[in-house]
Each structure stands twice: as C-alpha cells, then as structure tokens.
Design a protein that fits this description.
The chain is mainly beta. Helices cover 4% and strands 33% of the residues.
C-alpha cells in the first residue's frame, strides 16, 4: 500500500508509476472525484489548468495518451508524470485527501503531493528511515513507511532506489533495467512554496528535461529555485502558470448606462506568453460565473455592459498561458448599479366587471430582469373609453398587492385601464390598455308620458315613451305594465312588453282585469339586474258589462197558485245595476213564459197566476246599462214546497289517474226542485287513516249531470268519495261512500325545501334539507329518495351525483372534495316514477387545509462558510389548499441527530432566503414547505444537499497526557469538534511555562496523527503545550494544556459544593459555580456536570466537557418551574475525582407554557353562542402555575372570496384582507374545561383558537377550529306534553313549542318517541314530523297498553332535548285469540278442556266463551246410556253448546256430556268489552289408537263398610298400562264420574270405604286402563250395589230390652221430670218424624253441599223425581241422584229437550230461560258465571289434575264442574224451579230479614278440610243445634275426628269427597273473611259424606 517513485506494479492505489485501473488521482488517493484542482473542495467536475475533461489524469500540462521520458518512468502508461496513476480521473502525487483536485506542490487541503515531499512535515525527506506512521509520497495509511519509490521487487525506473529497504539512500544498487538519473537523487529544503521553503539538490550524470517538475511545482504560480549539479535542460517558456492579475478595480461606467469599467495590471506570464483572460462575475452574492472567457491578453481594461440596474456585481480575473489557467485575482469591490424605473409594464393585466359601479383589475409584476430595482408599488390609471377626459389615478404602495377594485364608477360604462410599476427610481412603463364595462344597473328613471285608458270591461291600453338611454344603465330588456286595485297593492296584474326601438311611442295592453273596477296603472323599464322605478300611478276604470248571476235564489210561501221568489245582489255587478228581470214558464213550455222587469232595489217578488200542481221554471237575472246578466234558474212545483234533496246513489269510479278520477252516479231525490250544485267529498289519507270528510270538488248549474271528473287530487293517495246534491233548500245528506281507491303515482312535484350547505371539513361539505312531506311523495314511500348533484362552482365539467335511499334523511356529507374549493350543490326528490324538480343551487366552500405538496424547483448555493442561499418556486395552484401565508425552510445537518431548524419567510412574494449562522463546512439537508392559516404543508421532495464553505478549524479537543515521565510526555487528542473543512495537518508547540512562546519547539504532524511523544524535557517542570489544526484556509485556534514532568501524579480532589446564586436562576438555565479541588499534580483537563430532577433519584450527565479553567458553568436545557440538584467532578490525566457534594435544591423560574390546550369540540349552543370544550395541557408543559385560558376568535369572511379571482387569492399575503382581527376573551378560572362563547354574530363562520397563560406569559395558540354560528339545536324540550286516548289503537299527543329563547331558530319539526311501558328497548319507535305542528295522532298501537311518549324538537342545526316521558294508555280493544287449547283426560264421554290467556289481552278480560258441537250429527245410538234410563238426543240433531265463563279464571272446564266416538269442534274466544277472535280445535272422544282395551267385567264384594272391586287385565295397547281408574255413577243416572284414580298398574282389585258413597244409593262401577297413549276403553259396568250399611249390634231388639230394663229404675226416679218434659219430647219426635218422611218437599239444603274437593257445586233448580224412577224411594224415603254440580256462575240454556219430561215438571214452575237469539233451536246455551261472593274461604285453583299427580302430599285444591248436559232428566230441573224455592246465587247464600234461611235447612254439613296457608279460614265451630241457619260452614262435633263423617238423618246422604281425596280442585282467593252471610252451599250428593278413600278420582264436579 505504498507508492514509491517509479512504481509500475499493478496495485490498487495510485502511487508513482502505478498503472492500476483506479478512479482516484493522487498517489494513494482514495477519493471519488472528477477533478484535480489544488485544494479545491467544490463539487465541480474539474477546471484545472490544462485539463481537457473527461480525462484519465490531470497533471500539469499533461494531455495523454503520450509516451514520455520523465524521471524514472518507463511504464507503457497514458501519462508519465511522477506519481501518475492513470487511467484515473486525476493523478497527483501522494494526494490522499477526499477532494476533487490535488496538484503537485499544493499543500492545501492535502497532506502533500510532491515527488518525495511529505509536507506539511519537517521530517519527510528522502532517506528518512524513522519508524513513523506518517504519510510520505503516495502514502495511504496505515503504513509503516512510504519512502519515495520503495515497492520492490520490481523492474522499474526509480531514481536511485534499491528496494526492499526502509530508507532511500543516495546510491541505489538494485538490479534493474530502467533509466535512472544516476546513482543518487537527493533534494533538500530550499524551495519557497508559500509558507514552506525547500532546498533541492539534484545530482545526475546526464541532462534531462525537468519541465515536469516545473509544472508540478508551479501549479499555482509559486516561485522556486532549482540548483543542479550536472547538465539540465530547462525549457524556458513552460515553467510556470501565469500569476493572478494585479490590482483589479471596478467602477461605474461614465460613458454608458448599465456598464462597469474594469481595469487591472498585467501579471507575470509564467515565462509563457498569455493567451487570454477569463473574467468571472458574482451578481448579488450569487456563485461565481464566467462572464467573459476570451479577453485579449494585451487588454488591461474592459467595459462590462448589459448589466441589470439595482444589482451589485463583483469581478475577478485569471490569466491563461500554455501551461494553463493561473490563479484568480482578488475580488474587486462590489459595485451596485443604480436603480432605474421599471423597463417593462406589469404582465397579464385583466379586468372584469364586479358590480354596476366597480371593476376588478388584476395583473402580475413585471419580469424580474426589468424591475430595475425593488418595486415599491403600482399605479393604476383609468378613464372613460373614447372620451377626452383626464385619467383618474389609484396608487398601490405594496408590491405584493396585484389587484385593485375600482369603485364608484358609472353604471354600465366602458373604461380603459392601464397599470405601471414603480420603484425608488420612478414610475415604469404603463401596460397596454384594457377595456371593461361596469355591470348593468337598473334604470334610474321611469318611462315618460305614460297614459292608460280602458279598452273594454277587462282591458286597459297603455302608451308611453322610452326613458333616456343614458339612464337605463344597461341593455333595455323591456317594460312592465302594472295595474292594481286601490288598497290591494299586493295583487298586481303585470304584463311584460319587449322594447320597440323603431317607434318613439310604445303601446301595450293589460288584459284579464275585473269588470267595471277602479285600477291604478303604472309602467316601468327593466334591465337584466332588475326593475327601474315605476311611473306615477294613474287611476282608470274598466268599462261596464252585464252582471253576474244573482245569489241565493230561493222560494218561500209556496201555494197552489202563487209563490214568493227571493234573491240577493249579484257578487259581480260589473256595473251599475238598473234592475232585475224575472220570468217563469211551465217546465219545457216556452210559450207560457211570463217576464217582469223590477227595479234595482227589489230583491223578492211574488209570482201569481200559477196552475196548481204544475212544475215551473223560474229565472232571475240582474240588469245594467249593458244588458241582462247571467240567469239564475230553478224549477218548482206549485203547491208543493221544495225539500232537501236526497243523496246520490249508485256511485262508481273510473278513469283513475294520478291527479283525477271520474265519478258516475245516479242523482237522488231532487227535493221537488232542480239541483243547483253537485258536491264531492272525500276521505284523504296516505294510508287511509284520515276519517275527516273534506270537500274536494263542486260543480254548479249542471242539474242533468250523471258523471263528474274530480281534478286536483294528489298522486298515489288513497281516497274514498261520497257526494251531496244541493238545491235551493239546502244540501242533501251524503251518499254511501265509494270503495277506497288509490290514485296512480307520478313524479314528485316539489323540490326539498330549506336546502343549506355548510363547511364540514377540508374535504367535505355538510348538506341539509327539509324532507318532503309524505303527501308529496306521489308514489310508493319505499321508493322515495333524494339525488344530490354537486360540482365545482363555475365549472363546466360533468357534475357528480349521489343517491340517498332513505326518504326521511335530511342531511348528507359530501366527501372526497378538494380542499379550499367552492362547490355548487342542489337536491331533488326521486320516486319510482321519476324525479322531481331541482332545488335552487346552494354554494359552499370546503375548509382551508395545509398545502398538499411543497414548493417546486428548490435549489441551494453555499455563499460563505456559514450561509446558504435557498431559492424555490411557488406551490402549484391545485395543491395550495388555501391562502399561502409564507414558507418555512427546513434544514438540518446530514446524518446528524441534531434538531431540525426552521427559517420562516412571511408572505407569498419572496421565494428565496439566505440561511445564516450555519456550521462551517457542514453538509445540510434542505427542504422548503409552505404554510397556510391551518398549518404547515408537506415539505419539498427530495432533500437538497449543500455544504457550507470551509474555514479555519476550531481547536482540537480531549487533550490528555496518559504517559508522563520526568523527561518525556506523551499526549493524545481528538480532532476539532468544528473541523470547518478538511484537516491537513496538526502543529504542536511546547515550551516551559516559565519561558516565552518565542522559544517554543514547533512540530507539524500529519492529519491522521492523534498522539505525540516529547522527550528530553526537564524533570519536575511545567510545560505548556499548544495544538493547532490546519485546513486549506489556514491554521485554526489553538488548544492549550499544562503538564508537569513528574511521576507523582494523582487523581484530582472533588470540587467544592456547587452553588447556584438565586439571581442566576432562570426558567431554563442556571449558573453553577464551584471552587476547584487539588489537581493531584496533574492539571485538570475538564469537568463533568451532573444533574437530577427532583423528586427523581437518577443522575444524568449534562455535560462531560466543561473547560478545565472554568469555575462556573451555565446549565441549560432545563425544564421551567422544576427543582434540580447538581454535582461536579474533575478529570485529569490520571482519572476522575469523586463527585462533589450535591448542591442545594433549586427551582427554575416559571416560563410561558409550551403547549396550547387541545380543543375537543366547538358546537353551536345558541344562535349567537358556541360551546367550546377543551383539554388542558399536561402539567409539565404549563411551565408554572396555570392562571387561566385565553380564547381568540374572529369572523371568517369566506363570502368575500367570491369577489376575488384565483390569482388574486393566491397573491394575498395574509388573512388581513379577508378576516377581522382576533377578539380575545380571558378566562381566569383555571379549572374550566368548557365555556360558552357568546355575543357572536348570527349566520357567520368563526375561527377559534385557545391558549393558556401563567404568571410569565401566554403559551402558543391551538390549531384553529371553525364553527358556523347562527344555527344551534333547541336547548329546551316541548312544553306541556299531553296524551289523550282516542281509540284502542290511537293516542292523540299534543304539546306546546319550546320557549322562544330556547328555540335557537325556526323549529322545523318534532320527533315523537314512543314505546310500551317497561319495554323501551324492544318497542321504541319514532315518528318524525317535518312541520312545526303541535300534535300528532299515533296510530296502529296495541290496545289497552300503557305507552311512554317523549317529544324532541329539531331545527336546521339538529335535534333538541327530549321532553320527560309522559304516560298514556290506549282504550280497550278486542283481545287476541286464546294462546292455545289443550285437551286432557279424554274418555269415551268426557274431556278436560283448558286454554291459555290471549297473547294480547288489549284490556281487562271479562270472561271467555266456549262453544262446542259435534262435527257431524249425533244419532240416537251414539248417546244412549248403558242402562237406557233416559232418552238420547233426537237423531240427526247437531247440538251446539255455548258456555260463557265470567271472570278471568279458571281457564278450564270438565265436559262429561259427550258421546263416544264423536269428533267435537271446540271454539274459545276471550272478551274485554267485546269478543275477540276465536281459537279452535277438534277432539274425538273415546280411546285413541294405542290406548288399552277394556278390562274384564268387574264384580264387587262387600265386607262391612268396605267395597272391593275385582277385574281382570285387558289388552294393554301399544305401551304398558301405567295405572287404572275407577268410574262410578248412581244407577239411576247416565253420567260417569271418576271415583278413584292412580290405582297401581299391577292391581286387579281395589278396596275402598263405603263412606265415599252416599248411603242408600245404588251405584254402577267400571274400570279404565291408562297408558302412555291415554285412557283406554272402559270395562262393562259392574252389577249395581247399594251403599246401605249393616245395622250394628246396639240396634238389635235384645240390646234394646236390656237397656230398657236398666233404664226403668231411672225412669221411676225421674218420673216427675219425665212428665214435665213429656210433651216437649213428644213434639220433638213428631218434628223429627216429619222431617224424615217428607220426600216430596225437598228443601234447598238437599241440593247444596260441599264436596271434598272444595268445589262449590250448586244445583240451580230443585226438581222432584217421578215415582217411575226406581231410585226415588229407597228405605221408605225419597232420595235423589247426584245433582249436576257446577260453578254457581254457570247458567245453562237448553231448548232442544224442552218438550220432553213435562210429566216431571209441575205446571206452575217458573218461566223458561230465554236462549240468545244467535243460538239455533238445535243448540244449547250454557252460561257460566264465576262469581267471587261466598268464596272467601274457598281456595280455587285452575289446572288439570295432572298437575297434582306429581306431589301426592300437596294439598289438593281442584274440583271440576259436572256437566250433566247429556242427561235429559236434569234439563227440566235446570229450566224450571218449583214455587217457593228461589234460585241460589253463585257461591253465595242470602238470609231473610228475620235471619232465618229462605229455605228449609239441609242436613248438617261435614267439616271442611284445612285450607291452604295462603287463605285465611275460620276455626271449626261445634255443630249448631237445629234451627241454626243452614249452609254455613260447620266444624266437626267435639271429640270427633275431623276426618270422620258426621251423623245425619237417614236418606240424606250425598256424594262426598273426603278431605283426603286426591281430586284436584280449582283455587280462588278472596280477600274477604267468611261470615254467616257468606257461606258455602253444597247440594246433596249420592255419595255418603265424610267417607274417605285412599285415592280419590279426578272429580267431575268441576
């Protein structure tokens, strides 16, 4: 890697003789440069002397290819200079600097580049063998040495060099075949080259051409002396470059304008004749540029002309000879040319009329080259075109203003306008004339000589003369003729007449006026902008005409031969009434006409001489001087007074169109007179909801009409029509309504109203409109939408369309628009047929934004070592996005972490800036960005790179002495922190501190050196060392260090406690002071300052390079209002000291805040205020104590932009021309987060900014927020919201509007929110009213439902608050159908029916109606009972049974009167105040498929009081039998009832106590199997068995005899007592005997009992069984079958069996119960009424018994009603009632006034079982004595278990369910306690009371 002279080896560096293909050009040069100028670091290709680029080398005078024979070079190369390394871009010897040039002999900015010269060093001569790491010729460090020419082994032509060796002795003994100069080649320092002197000794044994050396050493014109020892041939003319021209001067030319005279002294020509001079110029500090490249060499002066005034120029020259271009001379003084007036006019002058009195003139500045100075402004002159009048002058004093609005001009006048610029020298040239008209105005005078005269009764003729054209102020568009009635100025008849330019007198007519009416007339002239003033009004009256029809023709006092006719004055008299004409004639007999003329005051007349009962036509007409007016006629029959007509009939509709229909009809009764008017009324509604009839059409005086066309209808609207006919008496009743029709759809007729456009963002606009009312849709509402069309304002391009499908939408945001652009928008309605008209266009501008790209053509030029000139062009127009307020130059050091810097240029007129204060020789990245009011735009791209020029360097840093001995030291250093160029060398000087600097030792080192060792020093002495760096600009500032030559060094001691004086505390910096400690005999090199921010504990280094001489330091970059502590340590050559003690805590001062608050939202609050919400800055950015906020706001006058052109806007430098200054509002409350900014102007757009402030000052302002003021949402809800229930589906809601001060604008409508109570989320709906109405009808609601309703107003700005919810409830309606029908426990003759509540009750359920009937007629065999004890229904009769169940429960019935195998249809519907729809289902009785077969015929065994039923199992069906059920019935009745259920499936017998049965009654039993498929077929009935018990032993006769004998003794003892009570006992026995034997006089108690299932079974009618009934008399008393138990509220009606069993019913029985009219004779009507009276202690529960089969321990509370409907023997008892026996009320008992029951007492009741816990029950009472009112609840006797049966008279047993029964019964609660007047009755039953079965059957008494 070395480069000795003459090296020809193929190496990768560029040493002498190197032929390797490299791109560098110094010996060892590694820089990628294209030129080779000595010390030149500019980015140029090359411009060296003698250079002919592109070239491969650039030595002085070398023009390859050539083969020359310079010293020691024998290689076949393209050049052969010493150190040539071609093919290369440049090839100086030994140059290693990263530069683009490097000629031989130049030591700056290179290490060296001479043959064998390694300067700037003092020790680099040939032969130097010191082992140093320096950079000799061709050195590319790191190398150990680089002596001249040493790179062997090789065959080269070195100058006396034998390699390999460490030196370069004189005698070269190496074997080689080159042409050496001789044995030795030695040079010494004797050559003066700038700051260095070298002595060169050359020894050679032959002559040689040293011109190459001359060229190398004189590359920059340096002088030298060459001493040779032998013959040397030296070319006299090619030794040097010419010197620089001397004493250049530049002066303004006195003979020529715009010229400078330049003079200089001829320089030394370098021993070669001069060829030419080159003159360079710098204009206005711009970079140097060649102005003249071929000035004659004999010239010593030149005149430079063609310069530009007001610019400064600086010149320099250089001479050129054969060797090349010499050095430039020193620069001349800068000469500035004087200003001249602009030599060119402003460009692109245009004018446009703005108003009728103003013209906008715009222009661009003159070309810069013709401005001739700094423009001061412009002068605009203007005058009337073509008239010899003086110019009017307008002066503009700002050069940035390039537009002017000329005002106060004459309307519609042509002006010529010129513009000129001026500067300090005067006014420039005026531009060419531009002409422009002011806009048209309205005429200022009225037409002259206006005359008006009537032509006829409806027309007036006008004549007038045209006004003076001078006062028309525009193009005459015509005339308007006006006529109006006095006092009715708003109703003007106007006719437009086009101008007539041929005639002087104009004529026009106004027609269609009212007859014989006074008018005021006037005429005016108009132009395009508007109307001129009208002429003075003149009165005129139209001519008289015949009158209109008389009014109110009527007939009164109608007799056989006369009648009175009355009328009123005609509405349209049309003149002066002179009288009336009346005539009459017989109908259709004109020859009988009689006419009379009456005076004008007569308004009635008696017509006489009529024929009785004859129809006459009577006519009446008014009269004027013009004749008879319109006739009013009517027909009348004499002697027959007219009457009101009847309504039309047979109305039909045809020809249905969008806006009309045709009605055909038949006239109704005419009322004995003619019909004078037909009247059509209609119900109108979009969905047919409106029930009001309104008159839509009338037709008069067409009595014969049979069809009418009804026009003026709304498209796609429902109508229902009716008609009336009118005669002289009055109006008929309406006809029957027609069918409802809907007109055909049509396109919408209206455009949306109230269309507004507001700015939404930088790229969007907010469009709002009032949606079309529903009745204006003209089509299907689902197909109604809106089309939004938008385009740039003034653009002729294609507009964009957006479709909005929601018909209720009232706003739309138009997105993706251009920033800062005005758009034109309009809206139309669309339906399924077509589109409606467009709305009027509205305009809006998008918000201003930041520029979307940077300025173009950015360039940068370094002007000095600390400044760069930056230039740019404007931002393209489409990317400005607003008004450009200025530019920011963004620059930073390349590849550095330093902060980015900004240089702001205000305004848009300046497009260049000089960046100053830059770092020297620093490469900068530069960008330019424009900014608007909103903020900064994008920076320009790409980065521009530019380096400042170099300068002398700063001092080296980091000097340390790591090795110190008593006689030597070694010091190290770092390169300067500010190198300011390329470091070429370091210089070290040192001397004893006690001596002066003149005795210093100086040593120059290579630029790569970073250490230096000095020996031979004095021990224990102080030495001062100074280190200086050098660039091509010279030596820089020195760094000084002190060292002691001793070995007793130590680390320094810590400094004293750092202190911070309070006076030196600032917001962001403090002054830290300390006292140094001991340096340990090693001087301190630097200090390190650390700090920590309290309360944190981490220390951070603030600076590690504080000067060693400093005892104070400014600590910067601190946070304001923050506490800090500091500490310091010292560092010397040995190391660091300990840190000092921590300073006292110090708090920096407050500073202005660094951040603004963040504005979260700005929303309109009222029409003159906005609500601002913000977020305060973080605490660390407030920099102190926050004192408050500051709001800046100002109006944005966007509308003014429409009066400016695009260029005018772009040329504005600030918003001052378009906006008002900021207003400020201070908020001193620092806790605020929102504020209402009030007192703003309506309908204005505002810009709002915010800042915070503390005690020091105000922080930066926030980015601007824009808001439109004038539209705010209402701030209060509607008042007095009231709800009225109209129907079951409609609520009428009314309200008052919000208070006026809270409306914030016009209320556009209301939003009505409504939802079902407590179901808001699921049911909330919205009704929007787009009219400011005060009420709404909410329809299609759910009946009897509570709704919550809230109303909110809205205006153009949005929705206001909702009102508080108000509650309202719809009226009751018909309920929905019951939710289900369910059948259970289906047998051959019974079924349990249950149903569900209606899903929507729509009111209070009052009851249910159950209707069931066979689906097919029931024949006789289907209903015959097994024992045929009663007759079946008549064959073929389908019996319909209706059961009304009152109340809301229970929701089930047990029906037992069905026939086996018959399909029944059940229908159930609920009732509120009316019945709702039905739910129906069918069920077929009998066992279903898969049910068990019948068990074997049962038989019964008896043992005591127990009965055992035996049976055998039958077919189990499709699944195993799960249980058995036993049914029982009294043998004299045909209705089976479940006695016992849930018998285990394995059982074939079952034993039960006879107490379940009624004593003395015979029963039949049968068994039914049950499986999963249901109840199976029943077994055959068992033989009848009586429930009579066997008498006990104490009833035997012998036991009675024994008892009688024992009692005889007591009888004797008590004989007296027995005698006394004998009569009483006898009476008692008679009474008892009478009660037991009275069978025919059954009391009411026989029919009332309480079954075990707690169900009150009430027999409605007593009856007496026939003696034919085999069961009537048993045991000598009358007995009866179990009655049909039923709820007391069930009323039965049965008509189809009324004729049967009359023999069983006494004739005196009470009357029949009427059937409802809707029930046929074949139906039965049952009315169930579930009351609550008398049920206070009776728990009733709704449900099937299956609900109680799960828990056997549950208290059974079910019972079922026995419907004995299929038993005909009971129908009579239900229909009639014996005299003396009243009908029992539902579950109640009523006593007589005496307190005794109304009926005979029944047997005592059994005890009630315990009641459920939720129902209170009275405690059981002892059985009362006879005479106590019967039917009351009684407890068991004392000592008797409650479950035991009570004794009762024989024959009074009844079917009784013990309390242990499992039979479910309904449960009903009551809040009333039981009383003696509220007791429960229970009819007598066939089963014995008190009997207890293990499992009770599912009772049919339910």
């Amino acid at each position: 890697m070395d480069s000795q002279v003459g090296d020809t080896s193929p190496r990768t560096n560029g040493h002498v003789g190197d032929t390797s293909p490299k791109t560098d050009s110094q010996v060892g040069d590694t820089s990628p440069r294209m030129d080779s100028q000595v010390g030149d670091t500019s980015p140029r290709k090359d411009s060296q002397v003698g250079d002919t680029p592109p070239r491969t080398d650039s030595q002085v005078g070398d023009i390859s290819p050539r083969t020359d024979g310079q010293v020691g070079i024998t290689s076949p190369r393209m050049d052969s200079q010493v150190g040539d390394t071609s093919p290369r871009k440049d090839s100086q010897v030994g140059d290693t600097s990263p530069r683009t040039n490097g000629h031989v002999g130049d030591i700056s900015p290179r290490t060296d580049g001479q043959v064998g010269i390694t300067s700037p060093r003092m020790d680099s001569q040939v032969g130097d063998t010191s082992p140093r790491k320096d950079s000799q010729v061709g050195d590319t460090p790191p190398r150990t040495d680089s002596q001249v020419g040493d790179i062997s082994p090789r065959t080269d032509g070195q100058v006396g060099i034998t390699s390999p060796r460490m030196d370069s002795q004189v005698e070269d003994t190496s074997p080689r075949t080159d042409s050496q100069l001789g044995d030795a080649f030695l040079w010494t320092d004797k050559l003066s080259i700038r700051n260095f002197t070298f002595e060169i000794s050359l020894k050679s044994n032959r002559s040689m051409d040293l011109s190459f050396l001359s060229r190398a050493l004189t590359a920059r014109g340096d002088e030298f002396v060459l001493v040779t020892g032998h013959n040397v041939s030296c070319a006299a003319g090619g030794w040097q470059l010419p010197h620089a021209p001397e004493n250049p001067t530049a002066l303004l030319s006195k003979s020529e304008k715009r010229a400078i005279d330049l003079a200089w002294a001829k320089p030394f020509d370098g021993n070669s004749p001069l060829i030419r001079y080159i003159l360079e110029v710098s204009e206005n500090n711009a970079p140097w540029a060649i102005l003249l490249a071929n000035i004659e060499p004999e010239s010593k002066a030149v005149t430079v002309n063609g310069l530009i005034p007001a610019r400064s120029y600086q010149f320099r020259l250089c001479a050129v000879n054969d060797v090349g271009k010499g050095q430039f001379s020193k620069e001349t003084e800068r000469v500035a040319l004087p200003e001249e007036s602009p030599s060119a006019p402003p460009q692109n002058v245009i004018a446009s009329g703005r108003t009728n009195q103003s013209i906008m003139i715009q222009w661009q500045p003159p070309p810069e080259s013709h401005q001739n100075g700094i423009l001061r402004g412009y002068t605009v002159r203007y005058r009337l075109t073509g008239l010899p009048v003086d110019y009017q002058i307008k002066n503009i004093t700002s050069p940035e203003v390039t537009n002017l609005l000329l005002e106060d001009l004459i309307i519609w006048t042509n002006y010529e306008i010129e513009v000129a610029a001026y500067n300090g020298a005067g006014l420039g040239i005026f531009s060419h004339k531009v002409t422009e008209w002011t806009l048209q105005g309205v005429p200022t005078i009225a037409p002259g000589n206006v005359q008006a005269e009537p032509v006829n009764s409806t027309t007036i003729r006008f004549t007038w003369m045209a006004p003076n054209p001078q006062f028309i102020n525009g193009i005459n568009q015509g005339y308007k003729l006006l006529a109006w009635e006095p006092g009715r100025d708003g109703h003007v008849s106007m006719v437009t007449v086009r101008p007539n330019f041929q005639d002087s007198v104009h004529v026009g007519y106004v027609t269609g006026l009212k007859k014989f009416t006074e008018y005021h007339t006037s005429a005016l002239c108009f132009t395009t902008p508007g109307d001129g003033p009208p002429s003075p009004p003149k009165a005129s009256r139209t001519h008289e005409d015949t009158p209109g029809a008389v009014g109110h023709l009527s007939f009164t006092e109608i007799l056989d031969t006369s009648l009175k006719v009355s009328w009123s004055v005609p509405v349209e008299k049309n003149g002066v009434l002179t009288g009336y004409r009346i005539s009459w004639e017989e109908f259709n007999r004109t020859n009988t006409r009689v006419t009379h003329y009456l005076p004008n005051v007569t308004l009635e007349y008696r017509v006489t001489g009529l024929t009785a009962l004859t129809t006459y036509t009577i006519e009446v007409a008014g009269m004027t001087s013009k004749g008879q007016g319109q006739l009013s006629s009517s027909t009348i029959s004499s002697g027959v007074p007219p009457e009101l007509p009847g309504p039309p009939t047979n109305m039909a509709i045809s020809n249905i169109g969008p806006r009309s229909v045709t009605l055909q009809f038949k006239p109704g009764y005419d009322g004995k007179t003619s019909i004078s008017r037909w009247q059509v009324e209609a119900q109108v509604g979009v969905v047919g909801e409106n029930e009001d009839w309104v008159t839509v059409h009338q037709v008069s005086n067409e009595p014969e009409a049979r069809s009418l066309e009804v026009p003026g209808l709304n498209p796609y609207t429902f109508y229902r029509f009716r008609m009336r006919q009118v005669n002289i008496v009055g109006t008929s009743p309406p006809s029957q309504p027609s069918r409802r029709i809907q007109t055909l759809p049509a396109p919408p007729d209206m455009a949306p109203a109230n269309v507004t456009l507001r700015t939404a963002s930088e790229t969007s606009l907010w469009l709002r409109w009032m949606p079309l009312p529903e009745w204006e849709y003209n089509g299907n509402a689902e197909q109604v939408g809106y089309r939004v069309q938008y385009s740039r304002a003034g653009s002729l391009g294609r507009a964009l369309i957006h479709i909005i499908g929601d018909r209720l939408e009232r706003e739309f945001t138009i997105e993706d628009l251009e920033e800062w652009t005005e758009y034109e928008v309009r809206v139309q309605v669309v339906n399924g047929i077509g589109t409606g008209p467009w709305s009027q266009p509205v305009k809006g501008r998008t918000r201003e934004s930041v520029p979307s790209c940077g300025p173009t053509n950015v360039s940068a030029f370094a002007t000095t070592s600390s400044s760069i000139l930056v230039r740019w062009f404007e931002v393209p127009e489409p990317d400005r996005n607003g008004l450009i307020l200025g530019y920011k130059v963004v620059y930073k050091e390349k590849d550095s972490d330093s902060a980015v810097h900004f240089w702001t240029v205000e305004g848009n007129a300046t497009h260049s800036v000089q960046l100053t204060g830059l770092g020297k020789y620093v490469l900068y990245e530069i960008q330019v960005q424009a900014f608007t009011r909103i903020g900064d735009g994008r920076p320009s791209s790409p980065h521009i790179l530019e380096r400042t020029l170099d300068d002398v360097p700063g001092p080296p840093v980091g000097i340390l002495f790591p090795e110190v001995r008593t006689t030597s030291v070694r010091l190290i250093w770092q390169s300067p922190s500010q190198p300011n160029g390329i470091i070429l060398a370091y210089q070290i000087t040192y001397h004893l501190n006690s001596t002066s600097g003149n005795t210093a030792t100086v040593d120059v080192l290579s630029p790569s050196a970073r250490q230096y060792t000095v020996t031979n020093l004095k021990p224990e002495s102080f030495y001062v060392f100074r280190i200086t760096a050098q660039t091509r600009k010279g030596w820089g500032e020195a760094a000084e260090a002190l060292v002691v030559t001793t070995e007793k060094r130590a680390r320094p001691q810590p400094t004293s406690l750092p202190i911070v004086p309070q006076k030196d505390v600032q917001a962001r910096q403090v002054l830290l002071s300390w006292e140094p400690g001991s340096d340990g005999l090693s001087p301190v090199r630097y200090y390190t300052v650390q700090l920590r921010e309290l309360p944190e504990s981490n220390w951070t280094v603030h600076s590690a390079s504080v000067n060693h001489e400093a005892s104070s330091y400014i600590v910067s970059r601190l946070k304001p209002f923050t506490s800090y502590q500091f500490r310091v340590k010292a560092t010397n050559d040995i190391g660091d000291s300990e840190y000092s003690e921590e300073s006292e805590a110090i708090t920096t001062l407050q500073d202005a805040p660094d951040e603004p608050p963040a504005i979260l939202s700005v929303t309109p609050h009222t029409t003159t205020s906005v609500l601002i919400r913000w977020q305060r800055p973080s605490e660390e950015k407030i920099n102190g104590i926050l004192l408050g906020f500051r709001i800046r706001y100002r109006e944005l006058l966007y509308d003014r932009l429409r009066s400016y052109s695009a260029h005018a806007i772009s040329s504005m430098s600030s918003w001052a021309e378009l906006t008002a200054p900021y207003s400020i509002r201070n908020l001193s409350d620092s806790t605020l987060l929102q504020y209402e900014l009030d007192k703003l102007s309506k309908h204005k757009r505002y810009e709002i900014r915010m800042s915070v402030y503390n005690a020091v000052g105000e922080g930066p302002t926030s980015p601007p927020q824009e808001v439109f003021v004038g539209e705010a949402v209402p701030t209060a809800p509607p008042q007095n919201v009231a709800i009225q229930s109209a129907t079951a589906t409609q609520l009428d809601v009314t309200w008052d509007p919000p208070p006026v001060d809270a409306q914030n604008g016009d209320i556009q409508g209301y939003k009505v929110y409504f939802w079902e109570f407590q179901r808001k989320n699921e049911t909330e709906r919205l009704r929007t009213l787009f009219m400011p109405e005060g009420g709404v009808k909410l329809k299609n609601l759910t009946g009897y439902t509570t709704y919550m309703i809230s109303v909110a107003p809205f205006n153009a700005a949005g929705d206001g608050p909702r009102s508080a919810p108000t509650r309202g409830r719809t009226q009751q309606a018909a309920p929905s159908a019951p939710s289900f029908i369910h059948f259970s426990e289906l047998t051959t003759t019974s079924v349990n029916v249950s149903w569900g509540d209606p899903t929507f009750p729509n009111g209070i359920i009052e009851g249910y109606r159950l209707i069931y009937e066979p689906c097919t007629p029931v024949d006789e065999s289907s209903v015959a009972c097994a024992d045929c004890l009663h007759s079946p229904s008549p064959p073929g009769v389908s019996k319909t049974v209706t059961v009304d169940v009152k109340g809301s429960g229970p929701l089930w019935l047990k029906l037992r009167d069905l026939a086996d195998g018959i399909t029944y249809n059940f229908r159930i519907r609920a009732k509120t105040f009316i019945y709702g729809p039905e739910v129906e289902a069918n069920i077929t009785t009998g066992p279903g498929e898969g049910a068990p077969g019948p068990p074997g015929e049962p038989f019964i065994t008896r043992y005591g009081s127990a009965l055992t039923i035996h049976w055998t199992s039958g077919d189990p069906g499709r699944s195993p039998i799960s249980r058995y059920v036993i049914e029982a019935r009294p043998s004299d009745e045909g209705l089976w009832d479940i006695l016992i259920k849930d018998i285990p499936k394995e059982a074939t017998l079952h034993t039960f106590n006879m107490d379940l049965l009624k004593q003395g009654v015979s029963y039949d039993f049968r068994v039914i199997g049950v499986n999963d498929y249901g109840y199976g077929a029943p077994s055959l009935p068992s033989p009848s068995i009586s429930a009579q018990k066997v008498a006990p032993f104490y009833e035997e006769w012998w036991f009675l005899v024994v008892v009688a004998l024992v009692g005889l003794i007591f009888i004797l003892l008590l004989v007296f007592i027995l005698i006394i009570r004998g009569q009483s006992k006898k009476y008692a026995k008679k009474s008892e005997s009478g009660n037991n034997s009275n069978c025919n006089a059954l009391t009411h108690g026989d029919m009332v009992s309480l079954d075990e299932g707690r169900f009150p079974a009430l027999e409605l009618n007593n009856r007496r069984l026939s003696v034919k009934n085999s069961f009537c008399r048993k045991n000598g008393v009358y007995t009866r079958s179990p009655p049909r138990p039923s709820p007391g509220s069930l009323n039965y009606s049965d008509e189809d069996v009324s004729t049967k069993y009359n023999d069983l019913i006494p004739a005196e029985s009470s009357s029949l119960t009427e059937k409802p009219s809707e029930i046929s004779d074949s139906q039965e009507a049952l009315v169930f009424s579930y009351g609550t009276v008398g049920l206070h202690t009776l728990p009733l529960h709704l449900g099937s018994d299956s609900e109680y089969e799960v828990d056997p321990n549950r208290q059974k509370t079910h019972s079922f009603v026995n419907h004995y409907i299929s038993d005909p023997t009971y129908y009579n008892s239900w229909r009639r009632q014996q005299k003396g026996i009243s009908r029992a009320q539902a579950y109640s008992y009523t006593e007589s006034e005496s307190g005794d029951p109304d009926h005979c007492a029944p047997p005592p009741l059994p005890p009630l079982p315990p009641l459920p816990p939720q129902i209170s029950s009275p405690s059981p009472q002892p059985q009362q004595a006879q005479g106590q009112p019967q039917g009351q609840l009684q407890g068991p006797p004392q000592g008797q278990p409650q479950g035991q049966p009570q004794c009762q008279p024989q024959g009074q047993g009844s079917l009784f369910r013990p309390k242990g029964s499992r039979t479910p019964t309904p449960s009903l609660q009551s809040s009333n306690p039981p009383s003696a007047h509220s007791t429960l009755y229970r009819p007598p039953s066939s089963l014995a009371p008190g009997s207890r079965a293990p499992i009770a059957g599912f009772s049919s008494f339910v």
